[in-house]
Design brief:
By secondary structure, this protein is α+β, with helices and mostly antiparallel strands. It has two domains: 5-84; 93-156, PUA domain (Archaeosine Trna-guanine Transglycosylase, Chain: A, domain 4). Helices cover 25% and strands 27% of the residues. It has a five-stranded antiparallel β-sheet. The chain has a five-stranded mixed β-sheet with strand order 6-8-9-10-7. The longest helix has 10 residues, at 9-18. The chain is globular.
C-alpha cells in the first residue's frame, strides 16, 4: 500500500508554481498526495496524525476533494478545483462557443477555430476551459493549436444519443 504524503510548505509552493500559468497564487487547503500524481485538498480540523491514522483504515480520498494531478513540470486542476479557485484564475483561459461546448460535454476534444488559434497562440499546456462565465473543465492545448483535449471525467460527460 502506498503511503500518502502531506505536502509541506515547500512542496505546496512548488505545486502552486506549476499552476502559475493559470494565475493561482494561494491554495487555502492542506494538500495531500495519495499516490504519485493525484492531489487531494482537505480543509477539515483533523491533525496530521489523525489523517495518517485514517489513511491506514480508510482511503484518504473519502475525506478530501480531488484537486488535480501533479506532473514533473506542470499540474492540472480538476473541475471542482477550478470552481474553488475561480476568483484567482486569470491566465490560460480558453473560451468555447456553443458547438464546441456540446462536443466538450461528450468528452470530445474542442476543435479550435482560426480566430481562436490566433487568439490563443501564446498559450501552452493545460488550460481552464470556459463557456460564457462558467468554467467547464481543464484541457490541454495541442502543440499545433488545432484542438484542446478534454479531461472531463466520464461520469460528468453527456451520453450521446
Amino acid at each position: 500500500m502506498v503511503r500518502f504524503q502531506l505536502l509541506d510548505n515547500p512542496k505546496k509552493k512548488k505545486f502552486i508554481e506549476k499552476l502559475g500559468n493559470l494565475g493561482v497564487e494561494k491554495i487555502p487547503f492542506l494538500l495531500l498526495k495519495p499516490g504519485q500524481e493525484k492531489v487531494m485538498a482537505y480543509s477539515g480540523s483533523l491533525a496530521n496524525v489523525e489523517l495518517y491514522t485514517l489513511w491506514e483504515t480508510i482511503n484518504v480520498e473519502s475525506i478530501g476533494l480531488y484537486f488535480g494531478k501533479e506532473f514533473p513540470d506542470e499540474a492540472r486542476l480538476s473541475l471542482d478545483a477550478l470552481h474553488v479557485l475561480k476568483d484567482q484564475i486569470k491566465g490560460n483561459i480558453v473560451e468555447l462557443n456553443e458547438e464546441q461546448t456540446k462536443e466538450w460535454f461528450l468528452g470530445k476534444p474542442a476543435i479550435l477555430t482560426q480566430e481562436q488559434k490566433e487568439k490563443y497562440s501564446e498559450i501552452k499546456g493545460f488550460v481552464a476551459v470556459k463557456f460564457h462565465e462558467d468554467f467547464i473543465g481543464t484541457g490541454k492545448i495541442s502543440e499545433n493549436r488545432e484542438f484542446i483535449s478534454s479531461f472531463l471525467p466520464k461520469e460528468r460527460r453527456v451520453r450521446s444519443q
